[in-house]
Amino acid sequence: MTREAAVDGRIGSIRIGPDDPRYLAVVDKRFNKRYRASPDYFRLVSSTDQVVSAVEEGVRDGRRLAVTSGGHCLEGFVSDAEVRVIIDVSPMKRVYYDVVRGAVAVEAGATVGETFRALFETWGVVIPLGEYPEIGMGGHVVGGAFGFLCRQLGLAADYLYAVEVVTVDGGGRASSVVATRETADPHRDLWWAHTGGGGGNFGVVTRYWFRSPGASGDDPVRLLPRAPESITTFKAEWNGCSTVSPPPPQQKESVARVLEAYAKAMKTGDYSSVHFASDVTFLGPLTNGPITGEVQVKAFLLKVSAGVKDVRVKRQVIDCEFACVIADLETKEGNVVPFCEFFRIVDGRIAEIRPYFDPRPLIR
Predict the structure, then answer these.
(1) What's the distance, CA 256 to chain centroid?
(2) Residues 294, 193: one domain?
(3) Which of 18, 91, 162, 212 is at 20 to 30 A from 99, Cα to Cα?
(4) End of a domain among 186, 211, 236?
(5) Mind listing the pLDDT tens digit for each residue in 235-275?
(6) Which helix (H) or strand (E) holds 55?
(7) Same domain, yes or no, for 134 and 15?
(8) What is d(CA 335, CA 325) in angstroms, rounded to the nearest whole number?
(9) 227 Cβ partners below 8 Å, 6+ apart?
(10) Residue 201's CB: how many other CB atoms inside 10 A?
């Protein structure tokens, strides 16, 4: 672990390698546990200058870079085996009014919850951010950012006045750029790209500035929407069965037998022992709409089974007539395809299948 010189009075950037006890804690700071990173090191940064240095260092060493804020990337863009350096901007949490730009500045490491609280407690204003408070602002706003207030106020990106981004030129030199929505700004296209273009696509975002379109003056209380005076929250729960009692054992056993036959048929391609409802529906990707009818659904499933070598069921959940199966499908070439399907099974017959996986690697 190495520590570099502090910048503007805050902590210096910290390099965390595999031999550091904190390494695994940072690796595990990811929402989608399907992906796992194994970078050469993490770089924790607390200022834009430190980000510039970290980016330039990685580029100079020929290491693939990624950036994380709150760790809620759903895809494997950050937790990718090919990523060698992950820059963690979570220490950058300041929320303040920038007199020069006439806008409220929020650093990329602040979470949605921290931002909501700072805006409300300091100025009584709000930005329509997401529902979950632990999401990091760094990757949230650049995707548009939507939440409970969006029907009333629009997207958070609608209030984005400016963004600070660390980019790299053709010579490998990193620098920070501030792009605004001002029509005369030569970097306006870079600002526009960060109003929905997604995080990590154009550089490392280090800071945002927010101001309502058309707002003027230097009073931050009047530059963003007023926070609601009150909110109503509620929690809805329901049981999958028509009664609050658990499904009878014989029903679970019946559904389990159907699922076992289905998994076996996927491997062998013989669906003769699987009972389908005559009007069974298959709703999934790449089917250009639902497939309806026993003959049509079996024909499609046979195409999928043609590429399956083995089915390894990892978990199944049964709730009355509803069931979910999670498994790994091994292709004829030896590759593994993650598999997840939801079923509705009525009277021992499959009435509906909803797959949540990409069958293209299997179809022959």
Answers:
(1) 32
(2) no
(3) 91
(4) 236
(5) 776 655 544 455 567 778 888 899 999 999 988 999 999 99
(6) helix 48-60
(7) no
(8) 19
(9) 119, 120, 124, 125, 126
(10) 10
